[in-house]
Amino acid sequence: MSNWKLDSLRNLMKEKGIDLYYIPTADFHESEYVIDYFKARSYMTGFTGSAGVAVVTAEEAGLWTDGRYFIQAAKQLEGSGFELFKMGNEGVPTVQEFVKQKLPENGTIGFDGRCVNTRLGEEFQKIAEEKSGSLKTDEDLVDLIWTDRPALVSGPVFWMDEKYSGETVESKLNRIREKMKAEKADCHIVSSLDDVAWTLNIRGCDIKHFPVVLSYLVITEDKAVWFVDKNCVNEEIGGKLTAAGVEIASYGEIYSYVEKLPENGTILMERGTVNYRITGSMPSSVTIVDKQNPSVLMKATKNPVEVENIKKAHVQDGIAVTKFMYWLKKNIGTIPMTEISVSDYLEELRSRREGFVDISFGTISGYGANAAMMHYSATPESNAVLEPKGFLLVDSGGHYMTGSTDITRTFALGELTDEEKKFFTLVAKSNLNLANVKFLYGCSGVSFDILARGPLWQYGVDYQCGTGHGVGYMLSIHEKPNGFRWRFRADSNTVFEEGMITTDEPGVYIEGRYGIRTENELLCVKDEKNMYGQFMRFENITYAPIDLDAIDPAYLNEDDKRQLNEYHAMVYETIAPHLTDEEQEWLKEYTRAI
Questions:
Q1: Are strands 266-269 and 187-190 parallel, antiparallel or unpaired?
Q2: Residue 556 DSSP SS3
């Protein structure tokens, strides 16, 4: 089957002398989620998942994505002309390996330099040089095909007062400058949108469910310059930032600004987030210190004001999720329900809670086989009707002025098989194992991942994703650098600090049948300090029942039961005062000791 978009792109490539064209899922800031304007990969391939890249040659076209999306991508790529490359699987080449194999001698690699980070751009440059070839990065070829492309727009910015942020802009800038001095850097370029928002105590609405504003920040020894659509910044916020030593410039001026950076200057920046065109616009004589933005670790380590606020947000969120579970259990089989209708009702419940701003990501509401796709998103075409049997998996969250939440619950809607109960129970056991670990300071996420995977590995089962990720404060719901995973990667060595918040979300996904996930958020806190050092532990800050209708006690030992009972006792104590009498009685039953 012919794909006219693919044919058109290949014609443009031939016309412009490009042998291989790379299409990422990225905006100018390497954001995880992007606005519709930047969904070029989705437009070209038909695959709508949030993660994936495409590569096109004259003869071949490939789509690379990770294990969360294998099932979805296989379906959506049918008839597109793109082959699915399952990242991480044995025998599957990486994108770079594929590019190196397919680029002919003297060939040209093309991509939009604004949408490719410097580190990857330099890898492509090296590959091209090895083939005596070149790069062409000054044009977005998909834009020439996409005639009805959505507009690149920005919305209004709002201020995060100190009662929410817990720290002034001046203080944050001074702390960052101390890190710059340690690196002997006279300039720091910040491209990642959550780092810009955190540093300036601002939030926006440019990306759906991700409260940031498209902008860049440059910090020097004596000033900071914020590159943003000036129409989005009102006079009051502009005045506050000016008082904090921040100048405001137009969004597109970043390229001309970096052209004028001092010759032989030292620039602190992340090559993995600053785009290739920005780096290419700098004087060639500058020295780049390629290190993680100092704000990344500062932002991940929540201050006492943020911690107290986040706990309040989780109480509000727990009330909404518990009320949803009560409604679901009482009404399944008696009123019409679909994946989308129940998702909408949960959002409505959240919207009634104090301080609610928005949901924190598109809700995953998957019934039966749909839940086996980890990042499934219900559409009018796939929208399953719920029946009083099997599992409904709901992964959802909310942004509140007091923080962000991310919670997954798998609900038994009626009759379950013995296998479904077994794996539901093992997932709950895995979640609680990790949540209750006590450890010496200095551990990272790779130290603990086995606690979550172990109960499932014993049965020869795994889940093809990390066990947990950091969570931002009214920001990105996937926040680096902390997380839980068993495979080592560049950020796996991040030490858990007091104040870090990380999700705990093991699962089981059986293609074509069902999906199970139980997700809570854990706050890292100090425990005892003794002759062995500083011990740490996690405090569970997610408050909603784990469905006892799906628990098979045969798979739990006495310690597992104690952990589940203690968790449910905390949920009841925290949430019950906010419920009606009828809801309280129901919650008492669903948090009973087993």
A1: parallel
A2: coil
Q: Digits of tens for pLDDT over the chain (594 positions)?
A: 468 999 999 999 999 999 999 999 999 999 988 999 999 999 999 999 888 999 999 999 999 999 888 989 999 999 999 999 999 899 999 999 999 999 999 999 999 999 999 999 999 999 999 999 999 999 999 999 999 999 998 899 999 999 999 999 999 999 999 999 999 999 999 999 999 999 999 999 999 999 999 999 999 999 999 999 999 999 999 999 999 999 999 999 999 999 999 999 999 999 999 999 999 999 999 999 999 999 999 999 999 999 999 999 999 999 999 999 999 999 999 999 999 999 999 999 999 999 999 999 999 999 999 999 988 889 999 999 999 999 999 999 999 999 999 999 999 999 999 999 999 999 999 999 999 999 999 999 999 999 999 999 999 999 988 999 999 999 999 999 999 998 876 666 899 999 999 999 999 999 999 999 999 999 999 999 999 999 999 999 999 999 999 999 999 999 999 999 999 999 999 999 999 999 999 999 999 999
Distance between CA atoms of 41 and 24, rounded to whole angstroms?
A: 6
Radius of gyration of the chain, Cα coordinates, nearest whole angstrom: 25
Q: Is the peptide bond before 481 cis (omega within 30 degrees of 0)?
A: yes
Residue 585 and residue 200: Cα distance in Å, rounded?
46
Task: List the structure tokens of 282.
Answer: 């700098």
Judge whether 96 and 123 are in contact, CB under 8 Å: yes
> What's 388's DSSP letter?
S
DSSP H stretches of helix in 303-417: 304-331, 339-351
Q: Which residues, listed in sequence order, are joined to residue 479 by a DSSP beta bridge?
A: 470
Cα separation, 195 vs 202, whole angstroms? 10
**Letter for the amino acid at 19?**
D
Phi, psi of 266 (to 5 degrees): -115, 120
φ and ψ at residue 530, rounded to 5 degrees: -145, -160
How far is C-alpha 330 from the chain's CA centre?
33
- Cα separation, 206 vs 211, in Å, equals 7
Amino acid identity for residue 478 in this structure: H
Tokens representing 544? 């909603």
Q: How far apart are CA 408 and CA 414, in angstroms?
A: 19
pTM to 2 decimals? 0.93
How far is residue 472's CA from residue 478's CA, in Å, rounded to a whole number?
7
Tokens of 305: 């004001």
Domains observed in the chain: 4-145 (3.40.350.10), 158-292 (3.40.350.10), 301-590 (3.90.230.10)
Q: Distance between CA atoms of 422 and 440, rounded to whole angstroms?
A: 33
